[in-house]
């Protein structure tokens, strides 16, 4: 099925929200639905749309997969409590790290995350709670990149020929499927999503696993989580579309306290983009890059090298995996 984009200029946020809420109510009938909130713009908008449509009949969960940014679960649960949306925290670190153990191929890692998410965590929640529908924030760029074979985005199912009802036991509703990031942000503002969430840089479904080259272990994720916190602190307010830190697999010789340290390499990426389809590296000042390198090597144990990516997308992609 060819999807027709609704551009930010075409979008009438109020009318769109009403139409989608009606559609969600029609699909769910008098049943219940479930949705995963990650704190990104897409899932936050879908959470508000779903609650507008279904009220308490929508069960919203935050899946703690062990791959999220520092303090994220707490921050998002509190933020949504302030919007009168109750979010249940589901702990599933072991499921995700178990699924990822030993994998280094990017597509296999993505598949393992998809399976852990839809089959193990949601399959269990749906069997336990009786919901027959899952609401999720798949957007047009996610679909296009997956169908084009660039990379399998974690939330793509039917477009890959997967029938979620047969495979996992629930139907999937995707209320922002025809929108891209700028339009989703517009919709979020109209729904009353706080600026702190609306203006947030995109964050991928596979979370920090999309930024660890090689095996994704709790220790390697902990390292990139610390580097990410520094990059986000320094680049917040830069106006860039997205910024991130990547952990490489290769080690290099560095020196600390006059001795050799065969350590890790972190790559920083900062993107100017409209909708993630193409991107250019932001021309950050060298002083800022200096500060970033000094802080990452000084504050993240084991890192001896920091690089800045100056490649455009394409041929690069925004994330590393
Ligand atoms: P790439 O790395 O393909 O990313 O240039 C394009 C945009 O999509 C985000 N991204 C994802 N979002 N599930 C998502 O919901 C995913 O599996 C996924 N992979 C990448 C990425 O952060 C960027 O904004």
TrEMBL record:
Domain of life the protein comes from: Bacteria
Pathway of action: Purine metabolism; GMP biosynthesis; GMP from XMP (L-Gln route): step 1/1
Pfam families per record: GMP_synt_C
Residue span(s) of domain GMPS ATP-PPase: 11-200
GO molecular function: ATP binding; GMP synthase activity
InterPro entries the record matches: GMP_synth_C, GMPS_ATP_PPase_dom, Rossmann-like_a/b/a_fold
GO cellular component, one term: cytosol
Enzyme Commission designation: 6.3.5.2
Positions annotated to bind ATP: 38-44
Gene3D superfamilies in the cross-refs: 3.30.300.10, HUPs (3.40.50.620)
Top class in the EC scheme: ligase
UniProt-listed PROSITE patterns: GMPS_ATP_PPASE (PS51553)
Keyword Repeat in annotation: no
SUPFAM superfamilies noted in UniProt: Adenine nucleotide alpha hydrolases-like, GMP synthetase C-terminal dimerisation domain
Keyword Ligase among record annotations: yes
Keywords: ATP-binding, Glutamine amidotransferase, GMP biosynthesis, Ligase, Nucleotide-binding, Purine biosynthesis
Protein's job: Catalyzes the synthesis of GMP from XMP.
Protein name per the record: GMP synthase (glutamine-hydrolyzing)
Source species: candidate division WOR-3 bacterium
